[in-house]
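haha ok so turns out i had the wrong file open the whole time. this is the CORRECT one, sorry everyone. sequence first:
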Amino acid sequence: MPLSTADFAALGDTPITVQSTAFPNVYLRLYGAEVTSSTNSGGGTVNCQYGVGPYEKYRLRAQPDGLFSFESATFPNVFLRADGTGVTVTGPGGGTVNCQYGAGPYEKYKLRAQADGSFSFELATFPNVYLRLVAHGVTAFTDPGSGIVNCQFNANGGGHEKFFLNVAS
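then structure:
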């Protein structure tokens, strides 16, 4: 059963998954083995994976300003990073989604609850820009992952911008 906003405070270090609502059994994947210090442009790889392995698990970290960050459960202190620079119109998406060592401004999100129990992730630094996942053809596990993860403008509750948060098994 997907997590709700009320569940967040009790999670602590319990790992969660970020599951696409549009693509069955597809999860947000973060590979950050080489991300060992903070850089302006981030690093590592964020894409999609069919099923859940170690790179699809996160720790949801509440921030003092009411926002949330997603820390990799496999790579400590490596966070989901989204730079929405230039994403100002709807279309095929844009910006850059990767990893960052530590949680700065590009690693914070407003979790927007949706009627179906899912969430859209609005980038804290880029108002009205949301995390987007497109996984056409992602129907089997592959070591490097696949699909597209980027940003979308004006997409709160959009088909590719909604995710179920679940406790990882």
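The two ends are 12 Å apart (CA to CA).
again sry for the mixup
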